[in-house]
Design brief:
It is a single chain. The chain is mainly α and 175 residues long. It is built from four helices and two strands, in the order αββααα. A hairpin with a 2-residue loop joins strand 1 and strand 2. Helix 1 runs parallel beside helix 3, helix 1 packs antiparallel against helix 4 and helix 3 runs antiparallel to helix 4. The chain is elongated, with a radius of gyration of 20 Å.
């Protein structure tokens, strides 16, 4: 079965945009983890966890985050009970994006593009949340990166959606 040429082109645009969004996301995560927010003390990381061997204020045990029972909303951002900022969740998201981009590039199919569009829209929601969080923490650099990632996810979702609609169009003979 022949696929319309337009779908393959849009699938490649989607793949490039998704890889770019993922790369920018990884850069943002790396920068965020390597910088110390203005409001933390010397013994705390960006997520509020005490560094090894040091106690954070308000914590009775070594290495436990202060306000463990939800007093500090920055300790863990969860969606449906999943800590979306855990390394496992981050790498799972990166691997899913790379797999979708690879599938779209190598074997463009309507279902791949629809799955890619759904992934990008879900990521867009998380991106907007990250932009708001970074602005609230007065971290303009990371917020700017998050806006870039959000825009790329939006564009990738659009490209995937257009490509998926191209799959529905019959081939025109003689064109």
């Amino acid at each position: 079965m022949m696929r319309p040429k337009g779908m393959a082109q849009w699938a490649r645009v989607f793949a490039v945009l998704l890889v770019a969004a993922t790369a920018l996301f990884v850069v943002g995560i790396t920068l965020e983890r390597n910088e110390e927010p203005a409001g933390t003390t010397t013994g705390e990381t960006a997520t509020g966890e005490a560094t090894e061997g040091e106690d954070s204020e308000g914590s009775g045990e070594e290495g436990e985050p202060a306000g463990e029972e939800g007093e500090n909303a920055e300790d863990a951002e969860t969606v449906l009970g999943i800590d979306v900022e855990s390394p496992a969740a981050i790498w799972l998201g990166v691997l899913a994006a790379v797999a979708l981009a690879g599938a779209a590039w190598l074997r463009p199919r309507r279902w791949v593009l629809l799955a890619g569009a759904a992934y990008c829209l879900a990521a867009l929601v998380l991106d907007v949340g990250e932009v708001l969080l970074q602005l609230d923490e007065q971290n303009g650099g990371i917020a700017t990166l998050a806006v870039g990632v959000a825009v790329l996810h939006l564009l990738a979702a659009g490209a995937a959606g257009i490509g998926a609609t191209q799959a529905q169009r019959p081939l025109e003979v003689g064109a």
